[in-house]
Amino acid sequence: MDLTTRRICVTGGAGFLGSHLVRALEARGCRRIFVPRRRDYDLTQMEAIERLFRDARPQVLFHLAAVVGGIGANRANPGRFFYENAIMGIQLIEAARRFGVEKLVVTGTICSYPKFTPAPFREESLWNGYPEETNAPYGIAKKALLVQCQAYRQQYGLNAVFLMPVNLYGPGDNFDLETSHVIPALIRKCLEAEQRGEDHVTLWGDGSPTREFLYVEDAAEALMLAAERYDGAEPVNVGSGEEISIRELAELIARLCEFRGRIIWDPSKPNGQPRRRLDTTRAERYFGFRARVPLEEGLRRTIAWYRRQLGAG
């Protein structure tokens, strides 16, 4: 598919991943990109979605809009995270069918995987158990959209593909400590402690879980490649294939932030899922995606960006 000739709509296009995708599409030569804003189109309301489709007339739809957060935000808002993520996706996919969208790219989450999935996570393992409890409502809401995409492909011929990105990070991430994911939270804590001359930072859990991270510009590239080259029903992992423990990550970020104090772990707080590492074979085989930005380089760019925001503020 030649995206430059299509009318494109990106839900969540003003958000973290979405804003990077929009810039990448523009760099690709796409000129007809519609980014709905929540104040104008509340995607939990079908009336607003129908108005969006009439206004944008999308031929290609990227559905990135989501209500997301780290462990704390998931524990505080399980009902909201389930309902809003499920209802937005269910209604958008139904509208895409009715309005004859050519291609639909839906982003899921690796939070949908069972808690004790053997690493590396393979897409075949998606239904082999219940997700990690702290983010299960979010993960199950997203997994329901995979079922809908496959059912609509089977019954209606809707060309809907489903991608499952790993934890993303990079410039423009959410650095609010109440709702952020682990990398921006660690960067902010280390920079603030370094600036205040504090001798330690306290982090959740014991540092033993492992995670995989993907630089946000790489994720945007994966979405475009899937839109251009992939027309299959199977879900596809999108990640770097590299695993690091939270303890090692914290030490790396502290070094890059030039924080020389101690890291204190609070084991009374939850660790989250024990291990996360993806098998990324399908993404490379189906649409030629391979992550380019190594973790340390991506962290350097992210820290530099956040330092500039602090200076601008």
Task: Report on this structure.
- It is a single chain.
- This protein is an alpha/beta fold.
- It has a domain of 218 residues: NAD(P)-binding Rossmann-like Domain (Rossmann fold).
- The chain is 44% helix and 14% strand.
- It has a six-stranded parallel beta sheet, sandwiched between helices.
- Strand 1, helix 1 and strand 2 form a beta-alpha-beta unit.
- The N and C termini lie far apart (42 Å).
- The mean pLDDT is 94.
**Could you give the count of β-strands?**
12
What's the architecture of the domain at 3-172 and 213-241 and 275-293, going by CATH?
3-Layer(aba) Sandwich
Helix content bin: 40-55%
The radius of gyration computed from the alpha-carbon positions, rounded to a whole number of angstroms, is: 19 Å
User: Considering the protein shown, what is the CATH homologous superfamily of the domain at 3-172 and 213-241 and 275-293?
Assistant: NAD(P)-binding Rossmann-like Domain
User: Biggest sheet: strands side by side, in what order?
Assistant: 2-1-3-4-5-10
Q: Which residues sit in consecutive blocks of at least 5 with pLDDT less than 50?
A: none
Structural class: alpha/beta
CATH top level of the domain at 3-172 and 213-241 and 275-293 is Alpha Beta
Q: What does the largest sheet look like?
A: 6 strands, parallel
Q: Helical element count?
A: 10
Beta-strand share of residues:
5-15%
**Which fold does the CATH topology of the domain at 3-172 and 213-241 and 275-293 refer to?**
Rossmann fold
* Element order: H for helix, E for strand: EHEHEHHEHEEHEEEHEEHEHH
pLDDT averaged over residues: 94
Described by the principal axes of the CA atoms, the overall outline is globular
